Amino acid sequence: MSSSLGPRGNMTVPYQLVRDTFTMAFVKNLIVVLVWLILSYINGTLVATFFKHQAFYEDPRYILFIHMVINDAIQLTVTITLFVLSYIFYKINVSFCCFFILVAVFTTRNTPVNLASMAIERYIAICKPLRHNQICTVRRTHMVIGLIWFISVAPDITDLFVTLATESLSFFHESVFCLRPNVFKDPILAYKRQVFDILYFSSVFLVLVFTYLKILFAARALSTEKMSAQKARNTILLHGAQLAMCMLSYISPSVEIMLHFIFPGRILQIRYANYLIVYILPRFLSPIIYGVRDKKFRRHLQMHLLSYRCRNIVKKVASTNDL
To answer: What's CA 107's distance to the chain center, in Å?
Structure first.
């Protein structure tokens, strides 16, 4: 079986028809599916906790957080679906491939922009606390989420329009190995992606640095707010770590090429390790940042899990009594 790549699909390593053994393919897919099941359970629990408590509906911080959790869940589901399909069918219909690739790209781009929005919200909460409730309203937060999607979708939807204009309709009925360069073939699209990659991540990086420094200075100036400022600063540092992991998806093709020449006989292992590190590992950080570290959310999460266990116990006791 052939190894699949991540949603960016800008791999420039030669596409040899290299196959895994059945055992290796089974193990790789088993690991990926198990990771997806674990993360889906975690993300599902976080989403259920959010929607069960009205207090989170009115807090822009948690609205942005749950948006990122849902976005990451969609991204993870799409990329793992592509991974598994590449082993089962190898090639899929171009139209379906376009849909999978575009959804994966949109959700991948969403993450860094969402991180920047969350960092700005923390900056306003710490550095402008008296104006926080006026600036960060629920309505404006929903508008920001709409803007995040527009910023993420607008640059890459043009790939589809260019492909529709340059390819014949019969091309969309063909089957291909689902990689971005195999579907969106025009060379100018690759240069456009590079420009937007640099623009997106340099902008988000500057936002994180700016908010971190502002909160750092606020923590020194306001002794009464040192604890909350320190927590906000640590949160932005975690956002920075998450951004750094997201940025790996943009340098991973070059790293993969280099490793391919250093270890020419281990291309499948390199691709698989790259997929786990670049596209799956960063998805573990979102639940940690707010689901575990945040006291308010952690308390409600524990209550939700406890009530779920209690309901299960009651159901078991009731079923036993019926017998």
So the answer is: 6
Tokens representing 283 are 């998805």
Distance CA 105, CA 218 (A): 37
Would you write out the chain's pLDDT as a tens digit for each of its 323 residues?
Answer: 444 444 444 444 444 445 677 788 888 889 889 989 988 888 888 888 888 878 788 889 889 989 999 998 999 999 899 888 888 888 889 999 999 999 988 998 888 888 889 889 888 988 888 888 889 999 999 999 999 999 989 888 988 898 888 888 888 888 888 888 888 888 888 888 888 888 888 888 888 888 888 877 776 666 555 666 677 677 777 767 777 777 666 666 666 677 767 776 667 777 777 777 777 777 777 677 666 777 777 777 777 667 656 655 555 545 555 55
Q: Are 254 and 298 in contact (CB under 8 A)?
A: no
User: Tokens 């639940």 map to which residue?
Assistant: 287
Which residue matches tokens 């937060």? 141
